[in-house]
Sequence to fold (490 residues):
Amino acid sequence: MDKQEILNTMASVSAIAENEEERLEDFLPLRSYMALGDPNRFLVLGGRGSGKTRLFKTLLNDAGFAQIVGGQRQLFRPNTDNTRFLAGYDLTDSRFPSPSVLQRYTDERQAAAFWSGSVVILLAQSFRENEKIWGFVEENFSESFCENLRKERLLGRPSRWLDEIAENPECVEGFLDDLDDYLSRTNQWVFLLYDSLDRICVRYVDIFPYIRTLLAFWFAHLHRWKQIKCKIFLRNDLFDSELLSFPDSSKLVSNCLKLEWNTLSLYRLFVKRLANAGNEEMNAYLRLTENLISREPDGQIGYIPTENEDIVKQFVNEMIGPYMGSNNKKGASYSWAPNHLQDAHGVLSPRSFIKCYSVAAQKMLDSSDIEKPKKNRILLPAMVQGAVRAVSVERVMELQEEYSWLEQLKKALTGTTLLISKSDFIKKIRMDLWDAKTQEKLPATSPQGIFDVLQKLGIVYLARDGRVNVPEIYLHGFGMKRKGGLRRPG
Fold:
C-alpha cells in the first residue's frame, strides 16, 4: 500500500468542492433530492457550502436530472425525455445583467417586470426554432419587441425592454399562457433555475425587492401554469429575513426543499469523491473495506458508495482508528469531525467536511509521520483535530465573500475569550466598525440587530446560562478562544 499516493489523492479532493466542478462523478444524489421531481416544490433552501450551486449546475447538466430523481419515465410527469432546464438567473452567466446594471431597477415594479420579462426572453429564445411558439410571440408582442428577441444579448440590456414589459403585463401573461397550453398538449416541461440571488445587487437591502418579487411571481403562477415551472436556490438567512416578507410568504414552506446533510451522507460524499478521483491505488484502499463502493463505475456517475452506515463506519475506523485517542474518552472517530464542524444550528457543510479530511491528509504528507499509523490506517487523529482550525479559518473567509461586513466584525472579536455575557459581546459590535459605504450593506442597523443576524447564521448561540458561545467551526476563524477548551494541534 502506497500511503503517500493515497494521501495525495485525499489531499486533492477538496479542490473539487471549492471549484464546484460539474462532473456527475463527484455529485452525490441524496434521497431528499427526489422531491425536486415534484413540479410544485420550487424553493430550495440551504446555507453557505450546503450544495445549492452544485445542485443548480447538476440540473443544468443534460444528464443531471436523471441522476437526481432517477431515470424512470412517468406519463405526464417531468422526465429526461420531455424536460428542459434553463438558467433563470446565474451571476456567472454573461447573458444576464450585472449587479451594477440591476442596481438601477430596484423599484418593486421594475424588479417584478425584470423577472416576468426575463422569463419571456429566455423561453422565446429557447424555442426560437419552433414556428408555432414563435407565432405566440408575434401575436402578443409588438414588432419591435419581436425583433429585439432575435438578438442574443437582449437579456443583459433591460433598458431596451423593461418599460414595455412593465406597461403591458397582459402581453406577458398571454404569451406564457399560450406557451403553457402548447407544452401541456405536447407533454413538455420547462424549468427555470435561479441561483446567485444573494449577489444580484451591490447593496444588501436592494437584493430583497428582486427576491421578493421573484418568489411572488412564481407563487402566483404555481397552479396557473402546468408545464412552466421553476427551482429557486436561496440562502436560509435571506428566506428568514424580515426584509423578505410579502403577502403569502408564509405559505411557501410547503413548497420548500431544505438541503441538509447528516453524518452518513457526508462520509458517502467523501468516499464518492475519493473513488472517482481516477487513482487506482486509492480505489484499492477503499476496497479493503468490503462493499464500500460499487464493483464497477456506473456510467456518468462513476463509483457509488454504500448506504450501509456500518460499512462506512468500518471504513472510518480503518482510516483513523475507532477513537480519536487511545480509548473512547476522546470520542468516536466516525462522529468526531461532524460534531466539531457543525454550526450553532447543528447544520453541516459538505465543503467544510471534505476540506477537513483533505487538510488532515496534507498535514500527514508534510510531516514525518506517514508510516506511523499502524495496519491500514493512514491518518493520525491529531492531524484531523489540527485540520479543524484550518477549516474554521477558511469557513469564515468563505462567509466574508458573501457577508463582507464580517471582516470588520472579525477584527473586533479577535482575542475574545468565551464564554462571555451577551451584553459584553454586543458591546463589541459597535456600528462605527463600518464606514458609511459598508453600512449600506449591513443586514441590520443596530448592534442587537447584528447579533440577531449572527444567531440566524449559526455563528453564535446562547448557552444554558445565557452567555454567548461560538461553535468550533467559527471559533478559530474569528480569532476567538474558549477558556478551558482543548488545544488543537497546529
